[in-house]
């Protein structure tokens, strides 16, 4: 993976907003119309529809959702495959930190054994 991945930046930016995460959580249950999503949104009374549409646009630009317009109704659905780069990055980080913490645990365990045997460094 590249040191700087612009697709990851786009995905994490889209995921970084609580309104957008709420939309994704709702769409994980199945497709929904824009009106259904807006009405289900906790802050729908505080957020005008054009602002809410901006969140949907950000999610669609990131590839996390797709939308389709039939007549006057726009429906949205989750694009689960778009999460793959995030999942891969997180797995890489989990593996890296797990290995580092295992080495640190080994170090501390050996240090404690040495101190107990009187062969390690003193405080």
From TrEMBL:
<dbReference type="InterPro" id="IPR001845">
    <property type="entry name" value="HTH_ArsR_DNA-bd_dom"/>
</dbReference>
<dbReference type="GO" id="GO:0003700">
    <property type="term" value="F:DNA-binding transcription factor activity"/>
</dbReference>
<dbReference type="Pfam" id="PF12840">
    <property type="entry name" value="HTH_20"/>
</dbReference>
<feature type="domain" description="HTH arsR-type">
    <location>
        <begin position="10"/>
        <end position="95"/>
    </location>
</feature>
<dbReference type="InterPro" id="IPR036388">
    <property type="entry name" value="WH-like_DNA-bd_sf"/>
</dbReference>
<dbReference type="InterPro" id="IPR011991">
    <property type="entry name" value="ArsR-like_HTH"/>
</dbReference>
<dbReference type="InterPro" id="IPR036390">
    <property type="entry name" value="WH_DNA-bd_sf"/>
</dbReference>
<protein>
    <submittedName>
        <fullName>Transcriptional regulator, ArsR family</fullName>
    </submittedName>
</protein>
